[in-house]
């Protein structure tokens, strides 16, 4: 993501289906996961991703849900 101040940040985007697929693997150990920069979206449709990122940005949550390239 490119912010208006010129900074670049990243996050991991998952759909519920992808999350379910990863957690349904029989050999997953431990049987759970934690990702600080995880954003779950309904789909990979540009309109869904754009809406989620805009709302998170308006609520000052996008910085917490992403990580700087320099970190």
**Cα-to-Cα separation, first versus last residue:** 15 Å
- The mean pLDDT is 89
Major β-sheet, in short? Answer: 2 strands, antiparallel
Task: Supply the helix-strand structural class.
Answer: alpha+beta
Give an account of the 3D structure.
By secondary structure, this protein is of the alpha+beta class. The chain is built from two helices and four strands. The protein has helices spanning 16-23, 46-58, and strands spanning 9-10, 12-14, 38-40, 67-68. It has a two-stranded antiparallel ribbon. It has a two-stranded parallel ribbon with strand order 2-3.
Features:
71 residues; alpha+beta; 2 helices
List strands and helices in order, with pairings.
Elements (H helix, E strand, L loop, with lengths): L8 E2 L1 E3 L1 H8 L14 E3 L5 H13 L8 E2 L3
Parallel strand pairs: 2-3
Antiparallel strand pairs: 1-4
């Amino acid at each position: 993501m490119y912010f208006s101040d010129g900074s670049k940040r990243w996050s991991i985007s998952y759909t519920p289906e992808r999350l379910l697929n990863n957690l349904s693997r029989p050999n997953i150990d431990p049987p759970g996961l934690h990702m600080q920069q995880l954003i779950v979206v309904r789909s990979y449709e540009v309109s869904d991703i754009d809406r989620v990122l805009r709302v998170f940005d308006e609520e000052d949550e996008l910085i917490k849900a992403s990580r700087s390239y320099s970190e």
